Amino acid sequence: MQSIKVSLLRAGAILLFGGMITGLLVAAAMTGKVGADGRMVLGAHLNAILGAFILFGFAMSLKYMKYGETGLRRISLTLIVSNYANWLVTILKAFLHVHGVDATGQGKNDLVFGLLTAFVVLPSFVGIFYWVIGFKKD
User: Fold this and answer.
1) For residues 31 and 25, what is the distance between their CA atoms, to the nearest angstrom?
2) Cα dihedral sign for 109, 110, 112, 113?
3) Within a 10 A sphere around the Cβ of 98, how many other Cβ atoms?
4) pLDDT tens digits, residue range 115-132?
5) Which of 1, 15, 133, 136: CA 20 to 30 A from 96?
6) For residue range 7-62, what is the model confidence (pLDDT) as tens digits?
7) What is the rounded distance in angstroms from the CA atom of residue 35 to the CA atom of residue 39?
């Protein structure tokens, strides 16, 4: 279990650092120095920071989970993938200038919608669901 905890903490630290770097991109986008939507880049910056804290929180709750090592690894991977994808896809959509919250028939938007659904929304729901129901009884 210690290796899972270290992996989660490392992944969270890297994501937090990526979020801080994305903060530099926010300034460039909002001043027009790069061709990205500044508010969406700000969203990516916040997604990374909040995602890092989700990973930290899960890492710190491992000892309270009723799952074995295989189950914990699966939830960890799900949470890592979904939080990194949330950060990266949000950066992508900022440069594509699409929201991707629904399929509209526009290719770039629908690509983002598909990526968000497959790599962020569904895995997040699954990972968080198993985290919530996985606590040991007192």
Assistant:
1) 10
2) positive
3) 20
4) 999 999 999 999 999 999
5) 15
6) 999 999 999 999 999 999 999 999 999 999 999 999 999 999 999 999 999 999 99
7) 12
Tokens of 8: 């989660």
Task: Evaluate if residue 138 carries a pLDDT over 80.
Answer: no
> Which burial class, exposed, middle or buried, applies to 23 when counting CB atoms under 10 A from its CB (0-12, 13-18, 19+)?
middle
Q: Provide the whole-model pTM.
A: 0.95
Q: Are 78 and 123 in contact (CB under 8 A)?
A: yes
The structure tokens listed for 79 are: 């949470």
Question: DSSP alpha helices (H): ranges in the chain?
Answer: 2-30, 38-61, 69-96, 107-116, 122-133
Beta bridge partners of 65: 135
82 vs 89: CA distance, rounded Å: 10
Q: Is the dihedral of CA 12, 65, 85, 32 positive or negative?
A: negative
CA distance 133 to 63: 14
